[in-house]
Structure formats: structure tokens, C-alpha cells
Write a structure and sequence with these properties.
The complex is a heterodimer of chains A (403) and B (124).
Chain A (H helix, E strand, L loop, with lengths): L13 E2 L2 E2 L1 E2 L10 H14 L9 H21 L6 E4 L2 H16 L5 E5 L8 H10 L2 E5 L9 H8 L4 E7 L12 H9 L3 E5 L11 H4 L3 E5 L10 E5 L1 H6 L10 E4 L4 E3 L13 H17 L1 H19 L5 E3 L9 E6 L4 H10 L2 E2 L1 E3 L4 H7 L4 E5 L6 H18 L2
Parallel strand pairs in A: 3-15, 5-6, 5-7, 7-8, 8-9
Antiparallel strand pairs in A: 1-2, 4-10, 9-10, 11-12, 13-14, 14-17, 16-17
Helix pairs in contact in A: 1-9, 2-9, 3-4, 10-13
Chain B lengths: L5 H8 L12 E7 L4 E10 L2 E10 L2 H13 L5 H5 L3 H8 L5 H24 L1
Antiparallel strand pairs in B: 1-2, 2-3
Helix pairs in contact in B: 1-2, 2-5
The chains are: A alpha/beta (403), B alpha+beta (124).
Chain lengths: 403, 124
């Protein structure tokens, strides 16, 4: 089997005589050398602001930035005008809530979220509720993470349902949702959809046109790119009529003393100097994924998931949240009589990086009535040997804490 | 390994004064949603002096051990002494270095105690 660890300089770190073992990919992925090189090259060779300045550095930087946009458009099956670079998933959702939401929604309109949402796809809508009085409803989920069909029927029966804002994959349950039929159902009722692809994007190929989503958002840093860059995909017809969100340079065609004319898409939504090197590096990350190939990524992650679930079964003090079907290699573990922060700390001493807490999904933890979990989130470059080391470490830590 | 020193593990596995004080003068519940820690403390006073401390709730080894140690160490101290305490004092009591990421764990019990006695002040 080919190893992919050597692509990631971070994984050369050694902790407690053990090579760093990174099981926290759902928080942020490590960055491959090619992505880091893209950032370094931008500063060492170009370092120019984009869309201005008749010098060749500015032209190179602009070309690199716009090429990255084309790569992202191709990556998710969108048009270049439909790819807005933002600073994060959170920024993208806020943009939709403020620009589209404030104009298109009114008091009493229903926005439906799922119980599995990350806070990033809850709070902007709660803020809109405070501001204009929309109503927030939740699609309940089953124990395996799937949407409860009865609850879904109830949501779709809401006469004032205007928007479904739902996640593509749960950052706690690891469930990867088949959203196509739900979005189709929404479309048939004239209901808009926003898909939070932050967790799903790095694990399965995606085509926004096939999915049918009106908006789809994700971050670069969970996709092997740096933090501080994100993407908003919006259907062109919607983006065309939405008012600009932030005002400033780059988003205008013309500024007069008392008025302004916004720029065309996608510049209209990219006020100010963007994260140029971040966008370029995100383009490099997309190239990296393409080079490895989805077939390889999907099959390796399936193999790792199956192996992890099989190995963890042997530990009677561990319960895995969620089901077995359609899942990412992401496992939130409930540990009997062990606090996840203690375990995460001690795993860290063994060179294993994991996350503990509620993972920015309090409503979901409330539903499962667990205060906090230990989350291991793998990626295609992890290995079975790493899973073995993790399982053994977990056993040792239990013995230590309960000695 | 030093933060899971014998002393800490001992207090975590056999916490002192983990019970409700029915005749407490003050109590306070402190939650840390991001950790899942939930701690209620009970304080009994004699004038300005702390007479007894107990606690109920759940937390990690650091938070449970800290409140357990505090429930022993603070008896006989004054309200003012309790209110003046902060992270460095806990480091000293626990005899370990507490990293930034675990400081909330150590502080949850202390903050609950401080809020409990402050509420007492407001009442009187």
C-alpha cells in the first residue's frame, strides 16, 4: 500500500519517540508540501495585490488567483461567476444570511436546520431571527444520524418554509448525507437550500448542479489548504440579484459622491484585498486531491472506517456515536467513566492528536445526552497501524486513570 | 505525565467531600459547556471564616482533583483569601504546571466557590 504521510511536513514531527499521529482532520487537516509551496511562491515571487496595477507582478498574482477560482469551479461543477472566495465556511453562511436572507425572508418565514448542524450553521440564522423574526425549526435525526423522515415530513408541511440550511456531513456523527432527494423535494416546493459542505468536501466528490443546491459553502483549511480562505457557491441567478454584503474596494464598478455601482460577479462579493495566497493555495490543494484521485481517497477511507469500527468494538468502555452506513472516517467516542479531556491530553503525550468536547454542536450533544465526546477524525493518509496504536493507547490510558 | 501525578489521580479517584451540604450558607453551580463539566459547590461559613466545603458534579481529572483539594485546603481561610486566589495559587496547591488548555479545568471549582461566597455578600 502506498503511504501518503510523506506529503505532509507536519507528520515528520516526533512526539515521545513516536511519529506524530494526526487524528484531528475534522478540525483542520495538515497541509501538504505542495500547498505550503504555493504560499511561499506567492510571497517569494509575486507578492502583489490583484486586479490592479499595470505591473507584471500584479498580473501574475491576478492570474494565479483567478486560476484558483477556475480550479474550484471545476472541482464542484460550478461556473467561475458562482465561486466567491470568503474567509471561511462561517463567513460564507453569514454572507448568505445577511445578503440573501435579509432581503428574501420576512417575519414568520421558516428556516429549517438539521439537529446535526455545527454552530456555524445555527447562529447566523438565530441572529437573523433576532433581527427580522424568522422562525427556526430543526429536522430531528435518528440515532444513526440519518434524518428522521417523520420530522422531515413535518418540516416540509410548514407553509412558510423558505430555506433548508443543512449539513452535508455531521462533524460529530460522521454521517454523510444523501441530500439530493431532500433538495429535490425542497425545489418542488419552491424552497431554497444551503448546504454546509465544510465536513463533507474532503471525503467525496461533489457536483453542485447534480446536488441541486442553491448555495454551498466550505472552508479551505479542512481541505488541505490554509485557514482564512473559504468558498461560497451560489446559483448565478441568485447571486446576481443579491445585494453586496461588504462594501469597499474591488467590489465596485464605479463610485460617485452619493452612490456606487457594484461590480459584476464574482467581484461584487469580494470587497477589500482578499486572502490571495490562501485562494491560490486552495487551488493547489484541489490539484493535490485530483492527483491522488477520488477513487483512491474514497476506498482508503472506507477501509480505515471499517477497520476502526471493527477494532473499537473490542473495547467495552467505548461507545461510538452514529451508525455504520455512509460515514466519514470520523468517530465520536463516549468513554465510560473517563473524561474525554483527560484522555485527549494523555493521547497527546503519546503523539496522538484528537479532539475532545462538544465540537461546536451543542444541540446535537443535548439530543444524545452526552456532555462531551472524544473525537477521532481520520483522512485517507492515515493507516491501520495508526489505528492499532490508538486502540492500544486508549487501553493503557484507561488503566492509568482508573488505577 | 506530571499533570496526572499520583496526588491528582488520588483526588480524582477518591474525591474528598463529594456530597451535598444541606445546611450550606451558599452554593453555586458552574458549567463549562465546552468541556461538559458541571460542578455545584456548597460552602458553610462561620462569620468570615470558611468552615466547610463540599461539591457535586462531574468533570475531568484536573477539575475534580482541584475542587477536592480546595475542599480540604480552604477550610479555616477567610472569604477575602478565597476571593484573592487565582491560577498561580492553584498551580502551587496542585504542585503541577497547568497548561493554558487545561486552566479552565482547574479554575471551574475555584470560580464556583468565589461566586458562591460573593452571592453571600450580596445577600447580607
Amino acid at each position: 500500500m502506498i503511504g501518503y504521510r510523506e506529503n505532509f511536513p507536519l507528520l515528520r514531527r516526533v512526539c515521545a519517540d513516536h511519529p506524530l499521529q494526526y487524528f484531528d482532520n475534522a478540525a483542520t487537516t495538515p497541509k501538504p508540501q505542495v500547498v505550503i509551496d504555493a504560499v511561499i511562491d506567492y510571497y517569494n515571487l509575486h507578492n502583489a495585490n490583484i486586479h490592479r496595477g499595470p505591473n507584471f507582478l500584479a498580473e501574475e498574482a491576478t492570474t494565479l488567483y483567478e486560476d484558483a477560482r477556475l480550479k474550484l469551479a471545476e472541482f464542484i461543477g460550478a461556473k467561475r461567476e458562482e465561486i466567491i472566495f470568503t474567509s471561511s465556511t462561517t463567513a460564507s453562511i453569514n454572507l448568505v444570511a445577511r445578503s440573501w436572507g435579509e432581503v428574501s425572508l420576512k417575519k414568520g418565514d421558516v428556516v429549517a436546520l438539521s439537529r446535526a448542524e455545527h454552530h456555524a450553521n445555527i447562529v447566523p440564522w438565530l441572529q437573523l431571527k433576532e433581527k427580522i423574526g424568522i422562525v427556526i425549526k430543526y429536522i430531528e435525526i435518528n440515532k444513526d444520524g440519518s434524518f428522521n423522515s417523520e420530522s422531515l415530513d413535518k418540516i416540509f408541511a410548514q407553509p412558510k418554509l423558505r430555506l433548508l440550511a443543512i449539513t452535508l456531513a455531521s462533524n460529530v456523527l460522521g454521517k454523510y448525507y444523501n441530500l439530493k432527494p431532500i433538495i429535490k423535494r425542497a425545489q418542488s416546493l419552491g424552497v431554497f437550500s444551503l448546504v454546509d459542505a465544510a465536513q463533507g468536501i474532503a471525503h467525496q466528490p461533489l457536483n453542485v448542479k447534480e446536488l441541486g443546491a442553491d448555495f454551498l459553502v466550505f472552508s479551505g483549511h479542512k481541505l488541505f489548504a490554509p485557514a482564512g480562505v473559504g468558498v461560497l457557491y451560489g446559483r448565478q441567478e441568485l447571486l446576481e440579484v443579491m445585494p453586496p454584503f461588504l462594501g469597499g474596494g474591488a467590489m465596485i464598478a464605479e463610485v460617485l459622491e452619493q452612490s456606487y455601482v457594484p461590480a459584476e460577479l464574482p467581484d461584487k462579493f469580494e470587497a477589500g484585498t482578499p486572502n490571495i495566497e490562501g485562494a491560490i493555495a486552495l487551488g493547489a490543494a484541489v490539484d493535490f486531491i485530483k492527483k491522488i484521485g477520488w477513487t483512491e481517497i474514497v476506498s482508503r477511507e472506507k477501509m480505515l472506517s471499517d477497520y476502526f469500527l471493527q477494532k473499537i468494538k473490542a473495547l467495552d468502555f467505548v461507545q461510538v456515536l452514529g451508525g455504520k452506513k455512509d460515514r466519514l472516517p470520523l468517530f465520536s467516542l463516549v468513554l465510560k467513566d473517563l473524561h474525554p479531556h483527560d484522555v485527549a491530553d494523555l493521547l497527546g503525550e503519546r503523539g496522538i492528536i484528537v479532539r475532545a468536547g462538544h465540537h461546536c454542536a451543542q444541540p446535537l450533544h443535548d439530543y444524545f445526552q452526552v456532555p462531551a465526546t472524544l473525537r477521532t477524525s481520520l483522512s485517507f493518509y492515515n493507516s491501520q497501524a495508526e489505528i492499532d496504536y490508538f486502540i492500544n493507547s486508549l487501553k493503557e490510558i484507561k488503566a492509568l486513570l482508573q488505577s | 505525565m506530571d499533570i496526572y501525578a499520583r496526588n491528582i489521580l488520588d483526588h480524582y479517584q477518591r474525591p474528598r467531600h463529594r456530597r451535598k451540604l444541606s445546611d450550606a450558607d451558599a452554593s453555586f453551580r458552574e458549567l463549562n459547556r465546552s468541556c461538559g463539566d458541571d460542578m455545584t459547590v456548597f460552602v458553610k461559613m462561620k462569620g468570615d471564616i470558611i468552615k466547610e466545603i463540599s461539591f457535586e458534579g462531574n468533570g475531568c481529572a484536573i477539575s475534580v482533583a482541584t475542587i477536592s483539594i480546595l475542599s480540604e485546603e480552604l477550610v479555616g481561610k477567610t472569604k477575602a483569601e478565597l476571593l484573592a486566589m487565582d491560577l498561580p495559587d492553584l498551580q502551587e496547591l496542585l504542585g503541577i504546571h497547568i497548561s493554558t488548555r487545561r486552566s479552565k479545568c482547574a479554575l471551574i471549582g475555584l470560580r464556583a466557590l468565589q461566586r458562591a461566597v460573593t452571592s453571600l455578600e450580596n445577600k447580607s
